[in-house]
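Progress report, Aim 2. The chain analyzed during this reporting quarter is listed below.
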Amino acid sequence: MNIGIDLDGVLTDIQGFNRKHAPPFFKKRFNREVADPNPYDIRDIFACPENEYKAYWTKYLLRYAIFEPARPGAKAFTRKLKRDRHTVFIISKRVFTCRKDFMGLLMRTLFRYWLRRNGIRYDKIIFCDNDIPGSKYTACSENHIDVMIDDEGVNIYAIAPIAKVICYDASYNRDCGGENITRARNWDEAYDLIGKITSG
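Predicted structure tokens for the chain:
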């Protein structure tokens, strides 16, 4: 089968990264408290305007892109998929990776470096445009993805009509569900679900 795996929020725990770094940053820099601890997006967590959001990621983006580790078990999960002869696609809307300038080249290079450093096995990387809501649907359709593992509701609901979707559990996606959508809390559960899909 063709298996698609998202990076931010799936291979990495972006929510955990933000919970660690964002509260002291917004408190010190803008005297802003947490408004809602559950959303995926910093703008919603702190009810902050765009300029504050950009200030946060200007400071932390490279630290996140280079040093944030893969979730425990991600390396073994991708290796088991390859052992089972699945084709693994990393399908991501990582910011700036679709740009055709130095920043785009840098982010794509860091992306590949991160995968190699964390031992993530894959066959192909697909960079989707972060500014186009349906870009992951197009990527999954064009590459005949059978199962996509994602965490963002907008992507999960867009992909579900054409592929099985495993929703990687997070507080901000607990309401995601429906036809073709199952949920995994860790990589062992995700692997078991793929096994059931394959045998079913």
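Residues 50-67 form the longest helix (18 residues). The mean pLDDT is 95. These observations will guide the mutagenesis work planned for the next reporting period.
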